[in-house]
Amino acid sequence: MVGPRSPRSLLTEPVEAAKPSDPKARLRGILEGAAKLIGAKGYEGTSIQDIADACGLTKAGLYHHIQSKEQLLLKIQDYGMDVFEESVLAQVQSIPDPLERLKACMEKNILLVTHGWSKEVTIILHEHATLTGEARTHINARKKRYVTFLERSFEEAIRMGDIRPLNPTVAAFAFLGMVLWIYKWYRPDGALSEDLIVREMQDLFFSGIEIPTRPPAPPRRPRAKALRPRATGPRKAKPTRLANSRRAKQRKR
Amino acid sequence: MVGPRSPRSLLTEPVEAAKPSDPKARLRGILEGAAKLIGAKGYEGTSIQDIADACGLTKAGLYHHIQSKEQLLLKIQDYGMDVFEESVLAQVQSIPDPLERLKACMEKNILLVTHGWSKEVTIILHEHATLTGEARTHINARKKRYVTFLERSFEEAIRMGDIRPLNPTVAAFAFLGMVLWIYKWYRPDGALSEDLIVREMQDLFFSGIEIPTRPPAPPRRPRAKALRPRATGPRKAKPTRLANSRRAKQRKR
């Protein structure tokens, strides 16, 4: 999923600096320009001629890159999903521990939203319901893959004793809602830094579901017993063999 | 804020059943019809004539209720805020305990989203950025009041020792994101019931921040000491006089 460009460079490299001979960068420039225009004038209020004008192209030149206005909308959404997958999914999906994976995923996704990457593309990706038929099915399937990735990570974390039992689907959508809603309220010049948002949201979300790896040993209790607490419900610390090995790994790092 | 109609009846009463002589119900019907049309055709793609046709009115008849297309958009958003305030805010703001207030608020807000109240109005309220000038300022101020209500409730809950210290602004937006994102994924015929969503989301959100009112008394510790645990950090149980009186109240119910 990661191409020769790093996601960082993909996000920060100015489109203007791309060589005109680089067709991928050219297309990105068109998609971001079109997204801005659609954001300002609405999809129905934006003509192919408007987009061509904004991109410094003739209508024929624009049709070299896209076949129709609906295909342009699909390409903007696909581009949004590409950036998301490169900047978030590809960065975290190989993390073996599911809880660490979920926490890293929340961080990467929050930073993608707060880093000011094209807000217009994000809005079109999440708010535009104009796509129909196959195009809509295609984008929905890409979004669904992210939901499934989150659900499976929650399920795995429950199995490994990292988090207490919960409904993985509700957890996945709660995670997504918290993180994706940020584009609606975050202001780069506001009082809340992106690091603070990451820290607070990770804490809000995970502190209530994480099973502590080291149960607080009650005083005057022999150590051997403290490692095998009685089962008193899903919220009690219940270290498993896997959780212990994870802890051992973490200590080694 | 609560009018003579209960919010329940406002949500379930079919618009068609309203007497034509009831101008409020007539306006609601127009706003919901216009929202559906804008949802399907886009704001720019919907003309005043389209809306008049859909409502069975002449253009002049429609202009009796609204002055312009932008004013119609503002009225739809104001109507969305009215329903929200009657069904959520007015139902919970008099609850004295801030944590109970926040939990009830989450439940009412989730049910407003899942109960299938006009999704089109919700979408226009949260996704339409077409309003400008005073109209935009007005709607943003109404939305901001809800954020402030949540922030103050979190602050109060922290002061009362109901929840551990956290950033009230991030908590308010995390709460809103979890709850409002539901309109994007919830399907009434899906596998998740609205009661399950309420329960799971309340648990996800509050179990990690709530300070247990009854700290688990370690064995062999005298009872008097168990009620005054050492201060070992914000996540430790720290019952206050207020929290204790709340507990006593709850036991009486």
The average pLDDT value of chain A, as a whole number, equals: 79
Helical content of chain A (DSSP H or I, runs of 4+): 55-70%
**How many DSSP E strands of chain A?**
0
**Pairing-aware structural class of the strands and helices of chain A?**
mainly alpha
Give keywords:
disordered N terminus; mainly alpha; homodimer; 253 residues
Task: Give the SSE map.
The structure is a homodimer of 253-residue chains.
Chain A lengths: L6 H6 L10 H19 L6 H7 L4 H5 L5 H24 L5 H17 L4 H9 L5 H27 L8 H13 L1 H4 L8 H13 L16 H4 L14 H12 L1
Helix pairs in contact in A: 2-5, 2-7, 5-6, 5-7, 5-8, 6-8, 6-11, 8-9
Give an overview in words.
The structure is a homodimer of 253-residue chains. Chain A has 253 residues and is mostly helical. The first copy, chain A, has helices at residues 7-12, 23-41, 48-54, 59-63, 69-92, 98-114, 119-127, 133-159, 168-180, 182-185, 194-206, 223-226, 241-252. In chain A, helix 2 crosses helix 5 (69-92) and helix 6 (98-114) crosses helix 8. The longest helix of chain A has 27 residues, at 133-159. Chain A is elongated, with a radius of gyration of 23 Å. Mean pLDDT of chain A is 79; it is low at 1-18 and 224-245. Chains A and B meet through helix 7, helix 9, helix 10 and helix 11 of A and helix 7, helix 9, helix 10 and helix 11 of B.
Task: Describe this structure in a few short sentences.
2 copies of one chain form a homodimer. With 253 residues, chain A is mostly helical. Chain A has helices at residues 7-12, 23-41, 48-54, 59-63, 69-92, 98-114, 119-127, 133-159, 168-180, 182-185, 194-206, 223-226, 241-252.
